[in-house]
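User: Hello! I'm new to structural biology and keep hearing that structure can be predicted from sequence alone. Could you demonstrate with TadE/TadG family type IV pilus assembly protein? Please show me the input and the output so I can see what each looks like.

Assistant: Of course. The first part below is the input, the amino acid sequence of TadE/TadG family type IV pilus assembly protein. The second part is the output, the predicted structure written as tokens.
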Amino acid sequence: MNPIKKIMPRLRHNKEGSVLVEIALSIPIFLGLLTGMVEVGSYLLLHMKMQHTVVAIADLVTRDETINEATMTDIFQAVPQVMAPYNKSADTLMMVSSISQLEDEQPTIFWQRSGGGTLSAASGYGEEGDTATLPADITMRDDETVLVTEIFYRYEPLVFRFLPNQTLKRTAFFRPRIGALQQIDED
């Protein structure tokens, strides 16, 4: 008789170690789910932090009738605190653009400042002095200003390093509360 046939009935009735086999098979699945939840949670928190930051900076810029270079520098220094724990300078850039429309002209970027980090990124609305490319749902009247605040963040996955790095962007549109903010005063 074949030796395997002799052992099989005995193994079939022996239940010792079956739980260990099930655990050994399920642990990788549970670890994958756990690390996936950590990655997704971190990604969602980053998006929330970016949205809070872009709105907070836009709110700070639009509070006064005028703004100067020193105030803009101070406002950009708040970016790492609002973005914490995602506050690496090399991965972040905040950009504020003042877009105004003069009579019978296209909306133009009157001034544009960036800070809060050293990431290299370009505004999606143009550069200072250029005609602005605004979304279709943003309408402007003559002598009206819109402040566009953009934040860029280079995202590297925490756990799943095989996923590609990507640059995330959030934008906020605010109208100045008082005045037009069509220029930045010197210090």
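User: So the tokens describe the shape?

Assistant: Right, they're a compact way of writing down the 3D structure. Reading them back into a model, for example: The radius of gyration is 27 Å.
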